[in-house]
Design brief:
Strand content of chain B: 35-45%
Radius of gyration of chain A: 13 Å
Oligomer: heterodimer
Largest interface: A-B, 26 and 23 residues
Order of helices and strands of chain A: EEEEEEEEEEE
Structural class of chain A: mainly beta
Distance between the termini of chain B: 37 Å
Number of helices of chain A: 0
Order of helices and strands of chain B: EEEEEEEEE
């Protein structure tokens, strides 16, 4: 069973608020990822990290930012939330190597009103 | 990374085997085939993966054709809890970025 945790699971916030979605993993994985998924739609990679102090943009453009100061922690921040940011955000991690699997957290459902 | 093609939806009777196909005709030699599933509102769950040989674990079996251009995920005795979206992913070193690309998957509905 994977040990990757996301908080909050559900959040409703007002437009213009700053929000940080937390993601932590206890597996010592170097690689971490953030995906965005609207209900019934595909998962889209928005950020990834190869390790501490490494962050890259994913395939889908996102106004969010990420940081990787510690191996186990990969928070995602929206400086000024808008209704268009309403979505599910999924954090994941994997270890080195092509044959290693990616493990997902339970997801954070964000609603911006 | 190689693109995969899956049927958008399938039904399966409870207790019967569910066979989910995936085409990955452009797969290269060092790319693995992964299967994940996503139950409503949850994060995707790893099921199984393989390179060349067939694989089996406590959840499912993975059958990869000899030319590796397609594979089938088999759930031997489907239950209602297996109702989910199943993703077939091909991933390897070609992109150099270790990204996992999820497509639209197959929506499996297990019927009572």
């Amino acid at each position: 069973e994977a040990d990757i945790y996301q908080t909050p699971r559900y959040l409703v916030i007002g437009t213009g608020k700053k929000i940080t979605l937390e993601c932590s993993q206890t597996m010592g994985h170097d690689k971490m990822y953030w995906y965005q998924q609207d209900p019934g739609m595909e998962l889209h990679l928005i950020h990834y990290s190869y390790g501490v102090n490494s962050t890259e943009k994913g395939d889908l453009s996102s106004e969010s930012t990420v940081s990787r100061i510690r191996t186990e922690h990969f928070p995602l921040t929206l400086e000024s939330a808008r209704p268009s940011h309403t979505s599910q955000y999924l954090c994941a991690s994997s270890s080195q190597g092509f044959g290693n699997t990616i493990y997902f957290g339970e997801g954070s459902w964000l609603t911006v009103v | 990374d190689a693109k995969t093609t899956q049927p958008p939806s399938m039904d399966c009777a409870e207790g019967r085997a569910a066979n989910l196909p995936c085409n990955h005709s452009t797969i290269s030699g060092n790319e693995y085939v992964y299967w994940y599933r996503q139950i409503h509102s949850q994060g995707p769950q790893y099921i199984i993966h393989g390179l060349k040989n067939n694989e089996t674990n406590e959840m499912a079996s993975l059958i990869i054709t000899e030319d590796r251009k397609s594979s089938t995920l088999i759930l031997p005795h489907a239950t209602l809890r297996d109702t989910a979206v199943y993703y077939c992913i091909v991933r390897g070193s070609t992109s150099g970025t270790y990204k996992y690309i999820f497509g639209t998957g197959t929506r499996l509905k297990v019927l009572a």
